[in-house]
Amino acid sequence: MQFLKKIFIIIGCIFLLIPLYLAVALLFSYIPYNTDFTSEAEHPIQIQLHSNGVHTDFILPITNEYYNWHALLPEIPTNDSLIAFGWGDKGFYLNTPNWSDLKLSTAFNAGFGLSTTAMHVSYSTRYLSNSKNTVTIWINAQQYKILCEYIQSAFQNNVEGKVILIPHDPRYYAGHFYDAKGTYSIFTSCNSWINKGLKKSGIKTCLWTPFDWPLLKVYQ
Fold first, then answer.
1. Domain that holds residue 142
2. Is 26 domain-assigned?
3. Residue 107 has what pLDDT?
4. CB–CB of 209/198 below 8 Å?
């Protein structure tokens, strides 16, 4: 009986914590951060945030006078001019090409920081049109440099100091995957990683969010 009582207490606590988590997430999502940010007018650098409805990516130039991603990522196609970065749970990325493929073990490990992470890198030739899932931000050179350094610091390196390419099935994901640093959880989601990069770079965003829409609504 004592064992069952403890199980019921644990289950009850979980059900109480879920609405608390959502309430805090919503509250922090509406608290602005870097409120003194203004779009760069004299020498603007264009970046974008793009969401697939759940997960958000940074979209940046592959190369400009401030940063050259070819130096870090030799797999970049020569004909593309833009690069997208998305950080997330490695198991979810590689084992869940569709929502129907999601396993309870994958979701549990991702939610509670029990698996490793990966960086998904994809490429394109042109910026996306602004929409409910895509916003454009014009930033200055200093902000851009800090953002690029933040993204680069998330890559895991081997003993030779090179990034670690992960084999994957190209039928499900375009681009490449690389081993990444950090631990994914309900508190450090793919979107909170994006938010942290914006905060660190001095770009307007929210205090904290595990969701995609607060990142986009700031610029809509």
1. 31-217
2. no
3. 53
4. no
pLDDT digits (tens, 9 = 90+) for 156-202: 999 999 999 998 876 677 899 999 999 998 899 999 999 999 999 99
Whether 148 contacts 65, CB under 8 Å: no
Residue with tokens 């895509």: 134
In a domain, 88, yes or no: yes
pLDDT tens-digit map of 22-54: 888 999 999 999 999 999 988 999 999 999 998
∠ CA 200-38-25, rounded to 5°: 50
Q: Tell me whether residue 213 is in a domain.
A: yes
- The CA-to-CA distance between both ends of the chain, in Å, stands at 55
Query: Who contacts 195 (Cβ-Cβ below 8 Å, separation ≥6)?
Result: 205, 206, 208, 209, 214, 215
- Whether 192 contacts 118, CB under 8 Å: no
Spatial contact of 155 and 182, defined as CB atoms under 8 Å apart? no
Domain for residue 61, yes or no? yes
Alpha helix locations (H) across the chain?
Answer: 2-29, 90-95, 104-111, 141-152, 190-201, 213-217
Whole-angstrom Cα distance, residue 218 to residue 200?
A: 16
Whether pTM > 0.70 for this model: the answer is yes
